[in-house]
Specification:
single chain; Retrotransposon Copia-like N-terminal domain-containing protein; 2 domains; Copia-like_N
């Protein structure tokens, strides 16, 4: 009996059926990076990753492996479907091949490790688009004449998505609307998610405990040499000398108030005499 060549990517074992789920945790959007890593490892182990990344392209019609390629592609597509959340599944049923599914997910989630708000909103929005598409008459155009209409439809979907975002996304919305050529709807989604991530990062940095006390802590500093607020004796210019090109601007109102009420009389007088000597 001839041995089975496991290096052949077209080989399918009996246990590699349509119903299996390759990983235990389905993709929800927020876990994309870990999901992708686990899925890639599993597909490599099954020698099917070439169908996902395009390194095993579709053979020409009439080629001896054409039907076998489609059979494998359908099997791998079902594996990916079974590894998505139910909400995600309805959003990629329009993809004909497994590479299209993989690319669609990558374009949506690659720039960020998911986003609860935008991902959920986009998934529900796209679900409505898919339901609407089911109600439209199908076409069998093969000449490419329908492509401009399909492109316009995708742009319309992207516009609807952008216009329903709240005002916190007005900047990225304006940037996207001015792009030429106008990006695909999945690219629009990726750009919005990236913007949301930047906002979250900026907010976290702004509200970090170390930053909350910097200003107030500096205002509490009091120099033991000159009695002014905002620095300590070891950083006092009057004691250690002014740096090159330093421009004196006089006391701040807060420093004046403090010096007039708390500085020793001899220091106040000394400061006045120094200022008068330079006038």
């Amino acid at each position: 009996m001839a041995a089975i060549d496991d290096s052949n990517p077209f080989i399918l074992h009996s246990f590699n059926n349509l119903g299996i789920a390759l990983i235990s945790h389905p993709l929800t959007g927020e876990n994309y990076n870990s999901w992708k890593k686990a899925m890639r490892m599993t597909l490599h182990g099954k020698n099917k990753y070439g169908f996902v990344n395009g390194s095993i392209p579709e053979p020409a019609l009439g080629h001896s492996t054409h039907a076998l390629w489609h059979h494998n592609d359908s099997i791998v597509s079902s594996w990916l479907l079974n590894s998505l959340s139910k909400e995600m599944q309805v959003n990629i049923l329009h993809c004909s091949f497994v590479k299209a599914i993989w690319d669609d997910l990558q374009e949506r989630f690659e720039q960020r490790n998911g986003s609860m708000f935008v991902s959920s909103f986009y998934s529900k929005f796209r679900s409505l688009w898919e339901s609407l598409s089911e109600l439209k008459p199908s076409h069998s155009c093969t000449c490419g004449g329908i492509k401009p209409w399909c492109d316009f439809e995708q742009m319309d979907y992207a516009m609807q998505f952008l216009m329903r975002l709240n005002e916190s996304f007005s900047t990225i919305r304006g940037q996207i609307l001015s792009m030429d050529p106008f990006p695909s709807v999945t690219k629009v989604f990726a750009l919005v998610v990236q913007e949301e991530k930047q906002k979250e990062t900026s907010f976290a940095a702004h509200n970090h405990p170390d930053n909350c006390f910097k200003g107030s802590f500096k205002n509490r500093l009091l120099c033991a040499h000159c009695g002014m607020l905002g620095h300590t004796q070891d950083r006092c210019f009057k004691l250690h000398g002014y740096p090159p090109n330093y421009k004196r601007t006089g006391f701040s109102s807060e420093a004046k108030k403090h010096s007039s009420s708390s500085e020793p009389p001899h220091k106040v007088a000394q400061q006045v005499s120094v200022d008068m000597s330079h006038s």
